[in-house]
What we know:
- The complex is a heterotrimer of chains A (291), B (156) and C (219).
- Helices cover 33% and strands 17% of the residues of chain B.
- With 156 residues, chain B is of the alpha+beta class.
- In chain B, β3 (51-54) and β4 (57-60) form a beta hairpin.
- In chain B, α2 crosses α5 and α3 (105-118) crosses α5.
- Chain B is globular and about 50 Å long.
- Chain C is an alpha+beta fold and 219 residues long.
- Chain C is built from five helices and seven strands; from the N terminus they run βααββββββααα.
- Chain C has helices at residues 13-20, 23-28, 119-122, 126-147, 200-215; strands at residues 2-9, 34-40, 43-52, 55-69, 74-83, 88-102, 105-118.
Amino acid sequence: MIPAAFDYHAPGTLTDALALLDQYGDDAKVLAGGQSLLPMLKIRLAQVGHLVDIGRIGGLDYIKEEGGFLKIGATTKEVALERSDLIRAKYPILIDTCDVIADPLVRNRATVGGNLAHGDPANDHPATMLALGATVVARGPKGERTIPIEQFFKGLFTTALAGNEILTEIRIPVPPAKSGGAYVKLERKVGDFATAAVAAQVTLGPKGEVVKVGIGLTAAGPVPIKATEAEKFLTGKMPDGATLAEAGALAGKAARPTADRRGAVDYKSAMARILAIRALHRAVKRAGGQQ
Amino acid sequence: MAKHKITVTVNGTAHEAEVDARLLLVHLLREDFSMTGTHIGCDTTHCGACTVLLDGEPVKSCTILAVQADGHQVMTVEGLEQGGKLDPIQNGFWQEHGLQCGFCTPGMMLTSYALLKRNKKPSEDEIRQAISGNLCRCTGYVNIVKAVQHAAAAQA
Amino acid sequence: MQIEKQFVVAAPADQVWAFLTDPHRVAQCLPGAALTNQVDAQTYEGTITVKVGPVSSSYRGKVRFEKLDAASRTAEVVASGQDVRGKGGADLKMTSRLTARGPRETEVNVVQEINVTGILAQMGRGMIQDVGDQMFEKFLAAMRIQLEPAPAAAPGGAMGTPGAGGAPPAAAPAVEPIQVVSFGAGVLIRAAGRAARNPMVWVAVAAVVLIVWWLLHRS
Lengths: 291, 156, 219
């Protein structure tokens, strides 16, 4: 299938890209890796008048730790995260996430920024970024602003980005010592969207109690979901089996999935609970220094 | 809608074309450049039959616009054979019966070719991971894995 | 697919009924909805464009009001529409009932039966409910602005006695496009009977659900 006709622009600078978005307004869409957008255009589920390809803008793909943050440039490809020694060593939750995003071929093109900006609750990075408490950096005609990830996802395919803004960077606070995270996904086959998936990031205190926890749910509602009740429950408690089971149950209750061929509502919610427990166990284990 | 003049280097040779913005890379290769070794399997970015190497990395050419490949290097299955000699990966697929209908094979071979460039001695798990974006309806993947192992051994 | 919705409006049942059967007032709450043609006393044609991110669909359809019973405040609406770009279509039967729960409280119960055809029916309907819910919420919010007493006097909207909610203040603010979607079309409605009342709201709800259904797909 072939997309409906559109105009294509490949600006060389962010300023030019922003000017184009401003000019064409609602009729324009940013193209990064295109691994979510192009399939929609090909079956004509989506139409766009102008594609603004930001793939030729330099300086937007990087992975670095700076000023207490892990900073990932928006056009950083998923495969770059997977191959980064820094990420493999210090952020296994991101490796967990990358490993289950589509398949290796898609990951050679797909970008981390696109995975967030597309606004699909079934994409995998949103839940992980919710668990990590990330911040999104957006550049617009008036300059730069930061958006906390909890405020970023507004609805299906809709984020807090204005039509004339481009997501340029994702910032993750470098977790303190005794922190660990994991992402666990249930899918029918490699490359599928999640039937259910959970990201969990914990920090343990001196006695081994949970001092900080973030839990994000994928494909569990119209937007990626932060399981705040489960987080509140778990904070301050020792992460023994019964406590994690309770936290997982609360996370499962936060899920409000819709039924489709991947499963009925109660099945998906039940899986969210199970995966939350598994993700929490793995995160706690990693926080304790074991893998 | 305006046409775009692009230059794409395919298997080492620069090709020029004037294309619609919406032309997919797979159609550029098959229709404009008459290289039909790259196949179209699903059109929904699932099957990987359309796999080519873009700047050395295996990608699904049905999910890339031709204009995005402007100025870049593409390798298709036609580029595996060099000077009448089969690439070890092709030989491996031949020797190990790594294909039946052959529809997925160009994609499988290019993905494996790229794998062996990065990882000379992949484990079975690494091979299966690497080809997890390429679907095969005939073989059950067993002989495909053997074909890649054959090629790895031949290149050792 | 059957969807049931229930909501409460802080306004007398008569006013809610009057509102819901007034096509123009209801259309105000559906940004982008437009009536293009009145076929007969009970049928309207219209179009609606819904945009969710990069996904937009334009529908043209007809709504027919099968039953309109002012006494029991029950309405049955039948709607059908086609995507103008050939993406598919949908049929909807919607039954709605208003119940007065108090002098200024009305409960509205809506039951919808929807049938979707075409590419959108094949493509993952999982998200349809999600977007439908969101659109419904936005519509409700817009409707509440019209019906429920404003916290302070509407600017320039001298509308007679306090508490009179019969008609929206003259200076009613334009309803902002629904966050998720921006409507740009009209919905077909079929007005029933003498009252020249049109259950736009039910049609709107139906249209919303239809649109949502068409919009989302997942492979």
